[in-house]
Amino acid sequence: MKLAVALISLALAAGSAFAEEKKADAPKKEPTAAQKAQQEKMKGCNAQAADKKGDERKAFMKQCLSGGNAADDGCAAKAVDKNGKPLAGAAKSSFVKKCQADGAAAK
């Protein structure tokens, strides 16, 4: 019984050492052009969102990364109810959509 446990331990140790060696030998993959472009977009959006916090930042980043014009309209930040609480779900979506449409019509 002790011999079996010793052999299993030895096999596991050898297997993990082999796996670590194989990982170390694996070449580093360079990001694709699309991945590099996404990384640059994230850097730019992150820099623009430096002054935003919480839900406002989250909404801004989502719109910025999707290619929207979050920097121009500010509709997500204006999406609050009568008591000053942020809107959520369908109410927020409806408000932001109408706000952006009004902003586009004004231009």
What's the layout of helices and strands?
Elements lengths: L1 H24 L7 H16 L5 H12 L4 H4 L1 H4 L10 H18 L1
Number of helices: 6
Average pLDDT number: 77
- Sequence stretches where pLDDT stays below 50 over 5 or more residues: none
Radius of gyration: 26 Å
Number of strands: 0
Query: How much of the polypeptide forms β-strand, as a percent range?
Result: under 5%
The quaternary organization reads as: single chain
- Note the main sheet: none
Which features does this protein show?
single chain; 107 residues; mainly alpha; elongated
What does this structure look like?
- This protein is mostly helical.
- It has a domain at 36-106.
- It contains 6 helices and no strands.
- It has helices at residues 2-25, 33-48, 54-65, 70-73, 75-78, 89-106.
- Helix 2 runs antiparallel to helix 3.
- The longest helix is centred in the N-terminal third of the chain and has 24 residues, at 2-25.
- The protein is elongated, with a radius of gyration of 26 Å.
- It starts with a helix and ends with a helix.
Outline of this structure?
This protein has 107 residues and is mainly α. It has helices at 2-25, 33-48, 54-65, 70-73, 75-78, 89-106. Helix 2 packs antiparallel against helix 3 (54-65).
